[in-house]
Amino acid sequence: MNDTELKNVFIEGQMKLQELSRQRSMVTAQLNTKDRERKIASITNKELVSLGDNVKTYKSVGKMFIESDLSTLTTELTNLVKSSENETKALERAFKKIELDIKDQQTTLKEMLDKRG
């Protein structure tokens, strides 16, 4: 490879590395959001379970509240916790894959520099 081709391949590698870093940041933000969602649902569910059966409960719908059965609310929150945990696992797998791709790309760029030097 001549210098121009090597330079173009190196620039493409750097751009791919930047894109992977952006993806990693997005997945990290999504992980934080899902974890927060799971914690809130879990804490709310724990509080609702401690209430008696005769207590009126309300569900937030947009800007208003609708009376809802306690068992329905706890079921919804339990399902939300489970779905958040599943989505978190999927995001963690995606994060690990991106991390491996970043390491591979860094290794490739380093090898290119070592070959040239």
Can you walk through the features of this model?
The chain is mostly helical and 117 residues long. The protein has one domain (3-116): Orthogonal Bundle (Helix Hairpins), CATH 1.10.287.370. 80% of the residues lie in helices and 9% in strands. The chain has two helices and two strands; from the N terminus they run H-E-E-H. It has helices at 3-49, 70-116; strands at residues 57-61, 64-68. The chain has a two-stranded antiparallel ribbon. Helix 1 (3-49) packs antiparallel against helix 2 (70-116). The protein is rod-shaped. The model has no long low-confidence stretch (mean pLDDT 91). Keywords: Chaperone, Coiled coil. This is Prefoldin subunit 1. GO terms for molecular function: protein folding chaperone; unfolded protein binding. Residues 81-115 form a coiled coil.
Helices and strands, with pairings:
Blueprint: H1 3-49, E1 57-61, E2 64-68, H2 70-116
Antiparallel strand pairs: 1-2
**Could you state the order of secondary-structure elements as H and E?**
HEEH
Helix content: over 70%
- Percent strand equals 5-15%
Shape: rod-shaped
The total domain count is: 1
Termini separation comes to 14 Å
Structural class: mainly alpha
Descriptive labels:
mainly alpha, Helix Hairpins, two-stranded antiparallel ribbon, rod-shaped, protein folding chaperone, PFD_beta-like, Prefoldin subunit 1, chaperone
Describe the structure concisely:
Residues 81-115 form a coiled coil. The protein contains 2 helices and 2 strands; from the N terminus they run H-E-E-H.
